[in-house]
């Protein structure tokens, strides 16, 4: 039985991709406890801290995870990282479609979707385990949903 304090997100891979690093990502489920243990005793200390982006990412990932759990569903969450250091913070895998999500602590971060194109190789997989690339999102501090291009948009964190 687990305590539920830590969440491990597994890397996404299929047989066509052998260069994925297999180490899972770890997130603290209780961001209040995480802030306390890190010595961030005020919102100002958290905002100015060197790890504020990582803390924001943790909050976003755990909120998405909890939304699936609260609906009684198994969260289909993964992350992507390859040996070329191309990363996607979160992949939601539903109905053989991969929905990429980047998490950035800014209002409209530049080049946040640059690694989404790596998902094309999963659609072109020749091993029978194809996955389509779906619409992507950059979860950030934007004031509203803002289109980036035809397939991607900025999504404000308050929506999740």
Overview of this structure, please?
The chain has one domain (6-159). The relative contact order is 0.15. By secondary structure, it is of the alpha/beta class. Strand 4 (87-94) and strand 5 form a beta hairpin. The chain has helices at residues 31-38, 43-48, 52-70, 120-123; strands at 6-11, 25-28, 77-81, 87-94, 97-103, 132-133, 136-140, 146-147, 152-156.
**Unreliable spans:** 15-19
Provide the gyration radius in Å.
Answer: 16 Å
Q: Tell me the structural class.
A: alpha/beta
What is the residue-mean pLDDT, rounded to a whole number?
Answer: 86
Order of helices and strands: EEHHHEEEHEEEE
Strand content: 25-35%
Number of helices: 4
Topology:
Elements (H helix, E strand, L loop, with lengths): L5 E6 L13 E4 L2 H8 L4 H6 L3 H19 L6 E5 L5 E8 L2 E7 L16 H4 L8 E2 L2 E5 L5 E2 L4 E5 L4
Parallel strand pairs: 1-3, 5-6, 5-7, 7-9
Antiparallel strand pairs: 1-2, 3-4, 4-5, 8-9
Short précis:
This protein is of the alpha/beta class. Helix content is 23%, strand content 28%.
Supply database-style keywords.
single chain; 160 residues; alpha/beta; nine-stranded mixed β-sheet; 4 helices
């Amino acid at each position: 039985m687990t305590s539920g304090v830590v969440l491990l997100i597994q890397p996404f891979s299929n047989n066509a991709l052998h260069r994925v690093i297999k180490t899972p990502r770890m997130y603290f489920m209780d961001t209040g406890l995480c802030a306390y243990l890190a010595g961030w005793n005020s919102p100002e200390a958290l905002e100015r801290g060197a790890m504020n982006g990582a803390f924001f990412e943790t909050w976003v990932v755990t909120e998405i995870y909890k939304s699936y759990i609260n609906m009684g569903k198994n969260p289909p969450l993964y992350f992507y990282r390859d040996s070329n250091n191309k990363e996607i913070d979160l992949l939601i895998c539903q109905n053989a479609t991969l929905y990429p999500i980047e998490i950035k602590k800014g209002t409209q971060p530049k080049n946040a979707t640059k690694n989404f194109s790596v998902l094309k190789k999963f659609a072109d997989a020749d091993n029978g385990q194809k996955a389509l690339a779906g619409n992507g999102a950059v979860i950030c501090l934007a004031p509203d949903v803002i289109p980036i291009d035809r397939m991607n948009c900025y999504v404000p964190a308050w929506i999740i």
